[in-house]
Design brief:
The complex is a heterodimer of chains A (about 950) and B (about 375). Chain A is globular and about 105 Å long. Chain A has about 950 residues and is mainly β. Chain A has three domains: about 120 residues, Phage tail protein beta-alpha-beta fold (3-Layer(bab) Sandwich), CATH 3.55.50.30; about 100 residues, Carboxypeptidase-like, regulatory domain (Immunoglobulin-like); about 675 residues, TonB-dependent receptor, beta-barrel domain (Maltoporin, Chain A, Beta Barrel), CATH 2.40.170.20. Chain B folds into two domains: about 120 residues, Immunoglobulin-like; about 180 residues, no CATH class. In chain B, the strands form three sheets. In chain B, strands 2, 3, 5, 6, 7, 8, 9, 10, 19 and 20 form a ten-stranded mixed sheet that branches. Classes of the chains: A mainly beta (about 950), B mainly beta (about 375). Chains A and B meet through strand 39, strand 52, strand 53, strand 57 and strand 58 of A and helix 1, strand 1, strand 4, strand 11 and helix 2 of B. Strand 58 of chain A pairs antiparallel with strand 1 of chain B, so a sheet runs across the interface.
Amino acid sequence: MPGITNKLSIGENNSMCRGSFKSFVLVVLLLINFCFRIVSQGIDSLYLSAKYINTPLTELLSELEEQYPVSFYYKNEWFIYDTVNLSFSNTPLPEALDKLVKGTPYLYQIIQDNMIVFMLKEEVAIMMGQMVDLSLDMKDISIVVIGDPDDAGKFKKVTLTGTISDGKTGESLFGATIHIENTTNAVISNLNGEYSLEIYPGIYTLVVTSIGFEKALYKVKIISNGNLDIELFEKSIKIDEVAIYSQRVHDNIRGNQMSLVEMDAKNIKKLPAIVGEKDILKSLTLMPGVKSIGEFGSGINVRGGGEDQNLYLLEGAPVFNTSHVFGLLSVINPDAVNNVTLYKGHIPAGYGERISSVMEIELRNNNLDKMHARGGIGLYNSRLMLEGPVYKDILTFNVGGRTSYSNWLLGELPDYYLQKSSASFYDVNGLLKLDLKKHQITLFGYNSYNKFRYTDELNYEYENILGSLKWGQAISSSLRSSLNVSFSQYNVKKDNIKTAYEENRLSSQINYISGKYNISFMGFTNHNIDLGLQSIYYKTQPGEIIPLNDSSLVNPELLMNEQAYEGSIYINDLYEINNNISVNAGIRYSGYFFTGPLKIPQYRADASYSEISVIDSVYYNNGEIIKSYFNIEPRLSLKVQLNDNNSVKLSYNRNSQYISLISYTSIPTPDDVWKLSGAYIKPLIANQFAIGYYRNFLGKSIETSVELYYKKLNNLVEYKNNASLEMRQHLETELINASGRNYGVEFLLKKKTGKLDGWISYTFSRTFKKTSSLYNDEIINNNEFYPSSYDKPHDLTVLFNYNINRRWRIMWNFTFSSGRPVTLPEYKYTIGAEQIIYYSDRNKYRLPPYHRLDLSVSLDESLRIKKKWKGSWTFSILNVYARKNAYSVFYKKAKPDKDSDYQRFNLYKLYIIGRPLPTITYNFIF
Amino acid sequence: MTETLKNIIYFIIIILLTACQEVYNPGEIDAGLEIPVIEGYIDDGPGPYKVDLFWATAFNEKSNSPIKNARVTISDNFGNSAVFAETGNGRYLSNPGDITGIPGRIYTLSVELEDGSIYESKPVLMHSVEEIDTIYAEIGDKDFISKNSWGELMINNREGLYVYVDVNEGSGDKKFFRFHNRLVAQSFHYIYLPTYPDSLDSSLVIMEPTIVYCWRKSGLDEVVNIKSTFNSNSEQVIKRHELGFLPYYFSILWQDSVTTPKIPSGWIVTTTAYSLTEDAYEYYSSMIKQLGTEENIFDPIPSQIKGNIYCLSDTNQIVLGLFEVASKTTRHTAFQWSAGRDNYDIKNLSTYSAPPTSACQDTIMPDFWITFREIY
């Protein structure tokens, strides 16, 4: 029969057979004379007696083919996850087949007595000119009619749009899923809760879900284009913690975005707690492609990028230092967070400023009808957060804070030096939200402060001050605008208090002000267009040094402020070409202007930038442009969903960055200097290509993905050999323009349901830098590629939770990664009376591999909603087998005695957690 | 607080503060190569010039062995060359008259080792150097930091003179200098020696005061003292560059405990300015930075120090050291100051023959002694 393909070829080549299958269906329908079922006498006479328990449908059909003179035709992918739990007793075969397809989106036809062809109801109905009815049997739910009944039959395909919101508060719900039951068609609401769904006219059941909300079912009859606003309501059992996903549920296949890590309400409580507290930033490092330098160390490294290449946006304001006490904890209070999104690959055109990743952190801003509090008490610090209404349904607030009390503990220690040490921090955040339905205004403020002092040598103080004002406006059902004005300031002071003779305070500061206006337009079918503009003002105080007492011999010095302006415009379109293919394309154009007042040295053309190659200097007045840069940044991603459980995604990104953190120490320190691109320091440019394959197994309970990426980086800032960065107005004399290349492959296997859940992630990645200078002082490792300081080729995380019951849980977390590259001394020699060390090529060696096992037992809070006070306990043991992982290796002069093995220099290893570290934390909500 | 609660707190803290540091053995490091260290030197003085050759030692080893039987040659761009003679312990010296450093000429150091490997420096121009313009001092004090026998840091504040130099090299390109300073500190005191006025009566003894001259010879530089000129009114100058500090009191080598107080009576600073090449200046800058680390974990990641000598027979062979080619000029300046005074005395000496070692002698004033006032 022309057009007929057997089931094997259908299953083996889906893309090829789709057209032929449609033809086949048409031929079948013609042959059966528009009759849905022809039951031949022959098949009617066949009877089936068997019991099937969890039997794969495909297996059952094969069995029937063996037992009876029949052949089945279907696409393998339709039934791959379907199992049968039925028993038949002398049941006629047509009746048995009826039972098999009941409640499924399929029907079957019997032709020529022995050929049984399965077809999609939807396709048959369309071709027959009839209205599809894929609705569930939901007699108690009234049907919602979309469109004018007079338009019935006029449209082949229509668009259903609307907004999904919290039925209690009216807040828009981002990331809610609308799935049409019995089809593969599903969409996700955007940041404004809006969705757009293309569909054949018909009768359907819409299944609407969002984390933390009751699932909603809507039976709809769709006739023509129309609007359906949907409200969801919180579950009566409230799960309110923050959870981490590589993608939202099922989004790994359907989501348009690749290389995305999201955190939402649910499971972070299952993660290990360092010093007794969950840490969102550190939890991210358990995901593929995201690493950190060690237990401590500020920031994260995303796909081989430096920590300064990540834009951390807290309510739209950038955070310049994300760590408390050298990275002991991150500055993000988990209690205050509502949602975290990390873009590590494709970054939409609405975001600029950094080249590796963008992390958007939204604080809780729920419209509550009464006051709530939550907090936690740990060994090292405690936290408390309050939220509630100021004016019900219109004005709400959220304030929270954390503080440490380590000073009290240190003071009790019977050790002279530790008694003189201190480490303390606090952070406070506040958010006020005015909700006028069509207008939403959010006012946000934040301050984090740190003080760290080790004996009588060094004293660090640093703080972030952030603020933002957001104004969102629903101009029409398809047009929304948002204005975000943000401010960020980072201050750092380092007191050198070793001796009165040299006591001094070194301080620096960066100020950032940004205004961003965005318009979202959903007026075109299947298009979600964002366009906007952003303006940024940077001002840095590179350094000031002052003596701290009258006897100090340090001369005060103040470096000149530096300032720059950045402006950008962008447009981004998320285009759903069809249910399976979507394109997210955008472009960003940025201009950067480094301006006076500043004196700029002029260097010899035939020499590297150095103090000795200065031949003149030019003074620029206030506002006078010293140097400008312009960059075009295309962003593109493509999703091809092969079927319900497979998809492929590709992306290309070009990003630019006009500010860099200059660090040359083995351990990042708070006083590392933020440096603006300027007359001689060019903006960082990154081009990234990525491709990913995503596949779900076992009814989507297991998600797998593999992503490959390649990044090319230009104008990386590398420091010269023997550079000196403190109190340098013209840092270009200490820096080198380098290029880089990062590449890697990331695997993720995640089990999301059952008593045992968790994930295994493995990343193989490399990150290299290379200088290309002709001048001796600008050549690192002979101008050949060398590994960057955060190049860790192998990175493995195995994290499992065993849920004993609803409240008790055991967690296992094992991490392994290659050691970080280090520069080690290889030789020594003597010049005069001085011993000189010859160090290896930069980053030639590696620290030993890092591995650690953490275990924890948790007792979660009661979820009964009537219970006012809910408490939970977590007992953790970090580093169960006492691995002394080297955090850093440093070089220390020592007297040549027995203790130092008669060496004048010695290598020392610093490890942070050298033995099992138990912690206990109590969290509460009331 | 009860004792029990205290113990609980100690336990918690000890567990919390498990961070520690320990000597790190990196295991295998690539230190199996034989890396020559070549320190060559030629100036516009009469010579002899020296080249020191020795093997770099693996970081975790202790020996330091000289390179023997090498053929060491310095040649200039006028066809002159000199083969240096090995004098032992890795030192090679030029023979008088074989070659002379002349400003404006270009010199190349060549070293051939026993195994046939050949090392050669970049051709290095000997820059001329102008006379040092001014050396002067300012009265001040300085904290000297030391550790006592308990290992505690001690600060010892001492008064004295800061010595500075000004240089004016006229118009032209930036100039690079290395300053080398030697110090001879003078002091005197009296002792009482027995005299016998009556030669027939040895019982008659008169204790006559006798003057004792003491001098201490030392270097003034802590590491390497380098400075480059900067452009000021179209002239390449160095202004107020510190050469060192002259503490008023200094210890002397005199064992007799029966003395009058020791009176510092002057410092003679011999300053030699060497005109460096830019490469040599950068080499010394790197060395100073490496030696100046603050000994803590927040120090910069260390880096290599690159010189100007390469291996011709194997371009991948690492060579350490520097071939320094410099012309030089020397100034002798004598200072005298007493604590409490608000000014000091200075003498520019056209010549000065420094004593070979630190020592003391009584009665007779040494030839090299510089006087500012009458000594009583």
